[in-house]
Each structure stands twice: as structure tokens, then as C-alpha cells.
Amino acid sequence: MAPQLRLQFKVAIVTGGASGFGRGIAAKFVEEGAQVIIADLSEEAGGAAAAELKCDFVRADVTRREDWEALLRTAVDRFGGLDIVINNAGATYANKPTETVTEQDFDLVMRVNVKSVWLSTDVLLPYFLEKRRPGCFIQVASTAGVRPRPNLTWYNASKAAVINATKTMAVEYGPKQIRFNSVSPVVGSTGMQVHPIFQLPTTHLFLGKPDTEENRKGFLSVVPLGRPSTSSDVGNACCYLASDEASFITGVNLEVDGGRCV
């Protein structure tokens, strides 16, 4: 008899699921039996990812309440409920001196990285509480929220806020059997949002220079395992935290970083 898949019968929303870490998470969840709804700004990329992974797609802007409401409706109408929320969508600005950061830069990272998590809980927590249904929220944070480095001050601060809020909600909603955890990857080649409509690779923004093998060497020299985080690394970590194997794990920030934060 084949073993039961780790996420069988579970329904998950994965934001920013068309590319990068989000796609890796969605792929792993589908592989492990979950019914997955990819939420993404890009209709073309989101639809293509959903078709390839054989899951659902909803175009959504994670900074809009009505889009979160639509995601919940889709989960309930299509699959009968919701179990797992992966807040993966994120944004950054180019690595640069803090005194040159614009108000637009600041608003972007706080709106996409922090407000989106608040909206997810503001819209979805009442559902879990009303249904008395165990829930699982996982935020994709960053090593920048744990070991900040110069020139990305407000991006770092946004990820630190996500980690702190996750721990706080883990304590607050633990008695209701709603778990909150986060994962913190080190830099990797992702499709992180940097534009309100288009998603573009952003590794060069973190490096502050072109994303070449030579320019990566300096960054990767401080990662003991010697490589960046991959979408599979993050997908595997999120799968564990979302599974019943982690039913007693809440309030954890799991660093998926090859030892970067040690």
C-alpha cells in the first residue's frame, strides 16, 4: 500500500506562486497531494505555472483586500475549505545607501512585504476562527530580517516585522490551533515582485551589481554550504511546516540559508 502523501486533502494558497520560491513551494505541495491555488499578479506566468503543475490560478494583488476575499471564496467554492496560507509574494528595491531610499521604495516594501501579511490574516483568520478549523500560515521572510546588512535597511526592516508578527500571532492563536511560522532563505534567483504589474528577477538588486557568477562569489563566500537558496529548498521547508509532521511547531523562523545566519 502506497504511503499517504504528506499534504493529502489539504487546500493551500501560495502567493507569488508563478515563479521563484513560490513556484517551488506550489510544485512541492502539488507533489505531496495538496490542492493548490497559485495567486500572482502576472496572468500569463500564473496561468502557465498552474497549467504545468495542474493546480488552480487566481490573479491577485496581495495588497488588496478584495483579492484576498476572492482567494478565500475560490478555496471554499472550489475545494470546500482552506488549510494553508503561504505568504510568499515580496518586493525589494535596489541595494543603495539608506539616505537615497525614496518614499516610493519604502512604501513598496512595507505594502507588499508587511501589509499583505496583515491583509491575509485580517481576511482569513475570521474564517478559521468561525469554522473552528485548524489553520497554518507560513511567511517567506529572509535572512535579512535576522542578520541585516547595509544598504537594504527598509527591506530588512520589513522582513524583521514579518518574523516578529509571525511569532506574536503564533502565541496569540496557538490556543485556537492556528499555527504561524516563517522561513528565511538566503538570496536566490527568484521572480520577486519589483513592479506593480510585472515580476522580474531581482538577485542583482540584493547584490547591488549585475547578477554574474563573479559578483555572486563574494556573497556566497559567507554561506557555509557555498550556494544560494533554491526553490526546492524553500518548498521542502514549507512542506514540512505545513504538514501534520509539524503539528507541534509554531512561532518558528526556519533559516533555509546554508548556515548564513550562524
From TrEMBL:
- List, alphabetically, the InterPro entries matched: NAD(P)-bd_dom_sf, SDR_fam
Q: Which UniProt keywords apply?
A: Oxidoreductase
Task: Spell out the protein name for this chain.
Answer: Oxidoreductase, short-chain dehydrogenase/reductase family
Q: Output the superkingdom of the source species.
A: Eukaryota
